[in-house]
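#help-structures
NK: newbie question, is this the right format to request a structure? protein is NUDIX hydrolase
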Amino acid sequence: MNHRWLEWAKQIQAIAQTGLAYTKDVYDRERFEELRQMSIDILAHYTETDSGKIKLTFASDTGYATPKVDIRGVVFRDGKLLLVREKHDGAWALPGGWADIGLSPSEIAVKEIKEESGFDAAPVRLLAVLDKKFHGHPPEPYHVYKLFIQCEITGGSAKTGVETSAVGFFGEDELPVLSVERNTEAQLRTMFEFLRDPDKPVILD
């Protein structure tokens, strides 16, 4: 399916948000507000979602418009990859979530692994920085960068969290149904390539 309308809506929203952050002219502010409303109307029309909800979640940020950052912890044990089952969709994903203000990427990876799987972990290295739009994820209203950080277990035990309903380790040939909003099969297979080749360079985009 062609989702050009979604890309246009995101770009219009970003232009409007940045313009509102810097303009000093009252008439320009009105024009940027009109652009922001246009982006909301586009999403409301094509997704049949209430425009008020869209405005709250998609068009309420202020300041210069920047991508969101999603961080995933990559943990192997005995050649198998740690995954958690998300309560949101019942499918499986690498532990992770949105970056938090005040924490480094490594700190977030460790925190998410603990909260979602119960394991204590330590960061080892950055594996990949991917622009989500290039990697087969479902369309969404945000521009997202994904950071994959390899970690090693230092303690703890398998335990579900607020957002997860199961914890497991899976071999490359036994992957469960994946939460493709969070990670794709191709991405997880790439993580196994890093397991086989510790000298594999970091992947960008």
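mod (FA): yep, format's fine, and the tokens are attached above. The beta strands are 68-77, 80-86, 92-93, 96-98, 119-131, 144-156, 164-170, 203-204.
NK: thank you!
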